[in-house]
Amino acid sequence: MRYVKILSDIKQHFGTVDNFDICEIGVGYGGQCRIINAYSKPATYCLVDIHPALGLARRFLDNYVLNSVLSYKTMNELAGRCYDLVISNYAFSELPRDVQNKYLDKVILNSAPGYITYNDINPKEFNSHTAAELIQLIPGARIFKERPLTHPGNCIIVWANA
User: What residue ranges define each of the domains in the chain, with the CATH number in brackets?
Assistant: First the structure.
């Protein structure tokens, strides 16, 4: 149900994602990709995660007829480029700052629009970007309340720096 809610948010903020080139950072088993492809027709969908998660996502998604061409990449395999939509459900916000900065440089700051479900659960030594820092770093970014709220301090970060 969470993936359907996120798709609803994406449609509310950005309209259709048909023919979009989408990049999702932190894909888990591929559920968000599956839901987006069930209700929309993105041109491409790049799933970015660690190898074990990508293997799980590939195994799950291979069971469905999808509307987009899929690619599976680790952060190190990801070339810097512009996407029509960047998505991350919690994953980006749970990374150490140095890894977040690589994603910012490779994808987020080059792409518009974007949607991040943000949480603040990292250990202090990660020194992860706060939501307030991210809206300063990402042109056009705004913070929205997470509904339903899954943990105190969680929020949604949305931008459209076209």
Answer: 2-159 (3.40.50.150)
